[in-house]
Design goal:
Length: about 150
């Protein structure tokens, strides 16, 4: 049983194969993980070994401590990083969700000579540089913003 919004997205063919696969898995997990009962799947993007699942506003908070278990179950036996981001949240919150489990240390807007802007996000911890490039592509696709992730120099 899908929520009304999901039913509409399915009928309008707004969901692709990846979203359909994920929605089936999430439906199956609802009995095991109660916090999934009220989550709206907006979309999903897979690039390289990164899977970003876009959910409704406040849905990451609703998943609470279950989010790690949900991510583990969704990735299965693959070497995939699963991240949840919410639709409609402020940019800094979106970037924090996208970069999870790294912590965002700073967000700066850089105005380029041609008048365009780039957002520089400095993260703590370690992360594969290819993964950071993939996150930049996904952020550009979801938000239409040129974003550059950097790790804090130690």
């Amino acid at each position: 049983m899908l929520c009304e919004e999901c039913e509409e997205r399915l009928k309008s063919k707004a969901y692709g194969e990846e979203e359909l696969r994920l929605s089936k898995i999430l439906l199956d997990l609802r009995d095991k993980i109660k916090s999934l009962g009220d989550i709206a799947l907006i979309g999903a993007i897979t690039k390289g070994n990164v899977l970003v699942i876009q959910v409704g506003e406040h849905d990451v908070e609703k998943m609470g401590d279950d989010i790690r278990e949900i991510a583990r179950l969704l990735k299965g036996h693959k070497d995939t990083k699963v991240t949840f981001v919410e639709r409609g949240v402020p940019e800094k919150e979106f970037l924090g969700q996208l970069a999870w489990p790294n912590r965002v240390l700073s967000v700066k807007t850089i105005w380029l000579p041609d008048g365009s802007k780039q957002i520089k996000v400095v993260l703590d911890g370690k992360r594969n540089l290819d993964e950071l490039k993939t996150l930049e592509e996904i952020a550009r696709e979801l938000r239409g913003t040129d974003i550059r992730f950097e790790l804090m120099a130690r």
